[in-house]
Amino acid sequence: MESESKRKKESPNTAELAVTASFPDEVLEIVLSLLTSHRDRSSVSLVCKDWYRAERWSRTQVFIGNCYSVSPEILTRRFPNIRSVTLKGKPRFSDFNLVPPNWGADIHAWLVAFAVKYPFLEELRLKRMAVSDESLEFLASNFPNFKLLSLLSCDGFSTDGLAAIATHCKNLTELDIQENGIEDSSGSWLSCFPESFTSLEVLNFANLTSEVNTDALERLVSRCKSLKVLKVNKSISLEQLQRLLVRAPQLEELGTGSFLQDLTARPYADLESAFNNCKNIHTLSGLWEAVPLYLPALYNSCANLTFLNLSYTALQSGEFAKLVVHCPRLRRLWVLDTVEDKGLEAVGSNCPLLEELRVFPADPFDEEIIHGVTEEGFVAVSFGCRRLHYVLYFCRQMTNAAVATIVQNCPNFTHFRLCIMTPGLPDYLTNEPMDEAFGAVVKTCSKLQRLSVSGLLTDLTFEYIGKYAKNLETLSVAFAGRSDRGMQCVLEGCPKLRKLEIRDCPFGNEALLSGLEKYESMRSLWMSACNVTMNACRRLAKQMPRLNVEVMKEDGSDDSQADKVYIYRTVAGPRRDAPPSVLTL
Amino acid sequence: MERLLSFESDHLRATELRLGLPGSDKPSVRPKNNKRASSEISQESKSNSCASNAGNDDERDSAPPAKVQVVGWPPIRSYRKNTLQVQAKTSESELCRGMYVKVSMDGAPYLRKIDLKVYTCYPELLNALENMFQLTIGKYSEREGYNGSDYAPTYEDKDGDWMLVGDVPWGMFITTCKRLRIMRGSEAKGLACV
Questions:
Q1: Which of A128, A180, A319, A370 to mutate to test the interface with B (most CBs of B within 10 A)?
Q2: Mutation for B interface: A90, A92, A93, A95, most B CBs within 10 A
Q3: pTM for the whole structure
Q4: Residues 6+ apart with CB under 8 A from A525
Q5: Among B35, B79, B80, whose Cβ lies nearest the Cβ of A367?
Q6: Does the model's ipTM exceed the 0.90 cut?
């Protein structure tokens, strides 16, 4: 590491030596163990050899944003005492089917290494990794202290793997299965938790579709007195939900099952009272297929809600407005665009504390639809919710003026992700490109960390970004720009850029190669359907040995074109598990 | 007397043929067609019928050329896409975009149709019916139905029985209602007293 060469220059005088000698490593380790931020720890490890050593011994949690940037061997060699690992695998565009299957990011090799070096491993959080049942079984059998498993956007496993976890992990506190490509063959995995098992604090199986044994679930909930998070799947009916709530009044986060059932008066009253009895619920989600009729049962619970996730509930504006009136403390809101602008106006009027808003499209591919949200809804929210700093907004039309107003109202955006769903759509009122909209965003929001752009954009947008977005870390671009200059402006101008993902833009070799020196300071670059050639990629790979330059070829495409390029820094060298469609240059 | 006269003129107005949304006296405004021709990649038409449309230049709002969906766009996770698609299909088959049911009124020469999905509760529906037919229905009470008013709204349920509107929860009502009939008060009284 660089730190060691830095140290050689200094020649300590005797006074300094005395000080260093009297400060034992153990004390330093204890002090450093109080540091939790990964970035702080990285900085600490660069100070001097002693600190590097102390830091590596005291580190218990590690976050690896790209599983191929380092190898299990290198990791376990440097950090001997890890108990918690977070790993992210595939490039983000794999969520949208842009990455070939069997691309990699398999967890198994890591688990094998951990079984030897970290047998006391407690937590594993995976995102976009390939996870097999075999791996889950291995995990369940080799780590007796294992407590926490979180799988987000992973694929390759089935409910059999979950059964292994439930059966063998005696100390499990958290099982969080979210939005995975899981093969759901049966709900019997839930019944595998032994009757003696009581340690569960978090259970999220909202992702799964199979019916679970509701008796087993009820008993599990009853005996896990520390259960704070319960997110059930669609198969759980309202009546069953009520029975669960009665057994877990201490719940803080609830994901309901299907909110669709014909309830007569009695069960409805029971449901309402069950909700009223759960006084600690601050996060609510699920509500699959909610019939608005039963939403009033939630009204009292909504008073303390800080996070409401209705992104799987197709509520109309009227029903939604009636609900949102009861949520004055809301800080995070996820909805479908079925609530329309009127629904968002209600948010602006009732949720002054709102910090995060995500509006998903209910029917993204249906061109007949004339509903959804427009710029008006977004503007309405910005007037009412001045603390807004995180937005993900899918819409079918937008104007430069609206965005300018929005950021004027809310200058503290850290995450601005705007998706105008028709690629290359201009400002629908003026017919101009949307350059000024994103110009306004970067000029006004100095804290901006993440930006996704859309609509008709020329190089001007990227000039603005390069000039003003000095804190930008992640940029997503699609169907935008006019020439290489656009990409170059970004690479030259954004000092904190870590992740750049580009698709279907007219950026070519000159742009790619202009970032030669930059890529080592970034986590990764993705470019697909641009104008990059194989030769340029080879040149890049040759000049920058500490980068992995991977090209994914499409069937039947021109041999000289690099259809999809994924470039990332690594200390582990080129990977050896790439499928044939991925060429490492 | 006065009331009868106004009823007749209302009645005449009701029989007047015109384009208009129920309850409105103004001439109709066609809902704006917001179909937007897409400016992005368009390749093979999805269906052959589009070819015939494309040739027809007279159509002012001809359907945009059907395009192949761009892979991975809009950027929504597969899991979410699949879940919503399944939901859309099931709810479409049940509730559709619009739950139109026929509404007949005793004495009216022709029937009307309303979309039950537009309303979220009974008062909204009854208000709409009152506007559409220019009459008063009055307040619902469990004991007496719509006593005290000239008309009572009834509906035919899935079993073919004629029921009084308002007895069951709204959600249940809209899934079981097949058609509506506004009964004259005198007849309706027979329904209410049980």
A1: A370
A2: A95
A3: 0.78
A4: A499, A500, A501, A502, A515, A519, A565, A566, A567, A568
A5: B35
A6: no
